[in-house]
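Table S2 (continued). Query chain:
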Amino acid sequence: MKILKVLLASSEVVPFAKTGGLADVAGSLPLALGELGVDIRVIMPKYASVKVKGNYATIGKGVKVYFVENEDWFDRKELYGDKFGDYRDNLDRFAFFSKSILERCQEEDFSPDIIHCNDWQTALVPAYLNTTHKYEPFFSKTHALFTIHNLAYQGLFPKDEFPKTGLDQALFNINYFEFYDKVNLMKAGIVYSDAISTVSPTYAKEILTKEFGCGLEGVLKRRQDILSGILNGIDYKAWNPETDSRIFRKYSAEDIDGKYVNKEMLQKEAALKVDRDIPMIGIISRLADQKGLDLVAKIIDDLLNMKVQFILLGTGDNRYHVLFEKMAKAHPKNTSINLKFDATLAQKIYAGCDLFLIPSRYEPCGLGQMISFKYGTIPVVRQTGGLKDSVREFDLKTGAGSGFTFTDYKPEALFGAIKKALSIYQNKDAWNSLVKSVMGLDFSWKASAKEYIKLYRKIVGA
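Corresponding output:
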């Protein structure tokens, strides 16, 4: 069978630059694809955070990562914006990046079967392949897959900036780029790509609805025959309590006492009462409405009046900073509020907590529930997107299931799921059995990579 040649294009890639889950996907999926025999390469901008000499590096077992250099556009501390908002020249920056992707293919004499584009920052690549580069022999067999990681972020710009794309002004119309009198790069990626994917099967269905379609549901419905959903995975080399040097003590499903040692050490570090019998609830999140924190805000006082401990790590909207700071003052004995980014503390929370809350309004995939499984921390999630695809309601009678879920986006529904979890927590045998069970679940990239390979071959065959 012909070896597939794939170039994965992403605006962020672990370990070089990260703002969210896109970077984790772009840094992990290629490794799994490479191990399955794909000739996979990656391309990203060379930001200030990329401490590499030259214009490429390798990750994993020899996967090449190409860097696009331009000091004016990319030599900045942040990737997309600063405290004042998005960078005003983002269209210039990512139009340049997209053009450079195609130029780099030619420079490296790498004619890919698939350019796997990710989110709005690379959405111009399929547009260029179908317009300015349409008749270039070098790209005659190159197809574009466009993966939507979060439809809410679409790359919207004023219409008078359209010339920055370098495309014919006639393309600024309702069939291609125009979206309520603005330039919409996400829309262009959807329209011009040979196939579209999202990061979970349920999210692929949700974005066809008005509730989750962010105004693009009509465009997506017209292309739903080429739309699919493939659940993200996680890298167990990075997330594994048996090898994690950042946690207090390594442990496994065969040694879950080590998990409770981590719990006690986390309680001590967070200045909470050291008692392994007190249920400890954690949140690691961007502090935004999408993440369901408005639901948490409505139940938090009732929750903290129960015998529980609560630890939060994250930054985001100022109103949530204010809210959680007030909460910390009102409940100093059983809360630890950490309004910052701290990768080491994140690992300790995954390892030390009993429950992990993800009450999202919507969640394209979510990695937190998969990570918490590996650390034996039981997720409480809303049934949406990838959360619905990866967390099954626990049944005490049969022992089946992997967490606690709710459907209605209401505070009482979230509180009900937490209370059910806390009641089962009191049954130590059932709880420890559940902990061991979820630690054995497999959400590695291998299964997802096989699905991507199937999709790549389908696109090339078509």
